[in-house]
Structures
1.
Amino acid sequence: MIETGKKYKLKKIRGFENSDNEYYKVIGFYNFDTVICKNTCGERFVFMKEFLIDQQKPDEIYSDLILERKE
């Protein structure tokens, strides 16, 4: 369960290298599935809850998001 005031990492996308190991602190909820977060520099971001790694489910590190590359 995602909670206000706690820090979370972002899930990874299969097939893409991501060196982002930053934690994002949840500072509020926009609606049922969207959270407002800030990083250690104070920058604010909006993410869908499903993109944050839930501390109660630490093995779920990959997002279900599928990206297609068009050339």
2.
Amino acid sequence: MRSKLTLWYTGILALVLVAFAAATYIYLVRASAQKTDDTLMDSSELVVASLKSELGEGTERGTQTVREVVDDFRFRDREVVVFDDSHQVVASSGPREPERSPKAWPRPEAFSNLPGLTSNAGRGCSTLSAGHGIRFCGVVVQSASGNFVVVTAKSLFEEKETLEQVRTAFGIAIPIALVLASLGGFLLAKRSLAPVAEMGDRAARISANILQERLPVKSEKDEVGRLAIIINDLLSRLDLSFEQQRRFMADASHELRTPLSSVLGEAEVALSRPHRNEEEYRQCLNAVYNEGNRMSRIVADLLSLARADSGQYPIKQTDCSLGPLIEECVRALKHLAEKRGVALSFTPPATETVVKGDAELLRRLFMNLLDNAIKYTGSGGTVRAALSQDQSECIFTISDTGRGIAAEAQPHIFERFYREDKVRQRNADSEGSGAGLGLSISQWIANLHGGRVTLDESSERGSTFSVRLPSSRLV
């Protein structure tokens, strides 16, 4: 990544420098050419002004006057040449420094087509590529003594030499700048990505056994710091998930060990003597059957939760009328309630309540809650179920007169395999003692249907649970 960032940085900088150098060079070429034209034109205008002044006095010595005027003008790096109508040189003034004089002057006829001289403007500039090039500007002078063309010329050697130096400077400066920038960019990228490398080294040491490790956070305000925070949050969730999985496996093993031990114990008792009567065998087989049923329910619940966690549980969405569904669940549990001496009642809704969902899962949800309420209500108690509907939800409420749930246990009742110690001890020997999965499965089913299960109230006088599901019909 450091190399790629350096290459990208160097490439972009190279494009910027080349574009800047090209734009600067073009500007210098144009500015130099414009400055040369302005200088030559100013020199020509100065000579023309003197000629007009001298020739305007009406002297008959036109050619001689021109020579005298031109002799008075000697520039350091320019040369003035005057041509007559027949393109003959009338006068010429060499520069003060002869080595700066334009070499290889063109033939006089070349100035006859000088741009602007043949037009109304009577002036113009052009370049002849003789040697290093000659730039000249001419102005037409009209007088009584005849027409003359005043041409001021300058060699472009110095200008081209200066531009060559500029190109050389750019050719040297740009590669040096790119090399220095590449080194600086590499060091900057290395320093900027150092926290990422440190995070990678730390992350490589984290495994399922040491999920408590966290990545270092240098600064919470930059992108690397926020990335470290996000990864740390992910590690926290993974740690919690692994811990829940370990607890889940430990609790599942514990719950299965108890009925399995009972099965093995009953079998051992039955086999401890060579002969037993039919009643003793029936008692052993009945105990094995009950414990087998208990293990079957635990395994079925575990399978449901595992499929739910993986998102692979098949759902059949239909319009379900909750009233008849709950009445069916109440009828199915009437026998259990009577056996335990618990009065079970159901108050149906005033209007039809319909939800969109899976009828089998919803039946399991209500059966779990009703079964829990009956099992944890003592003999002579009551369990009341009611169904109502508001503008957006169907509300199923179930209240019992059991001992209630301790305040410290209430936040954990929907956790898997969680059972309050007092309740577990009280029901350890009761028929059909649960494994602490009923409320977890009920909450999952409610969430799957866009609803929720809540503990509304719990005290020594009993507990009240509510199931809220979104209604598919408005009141």
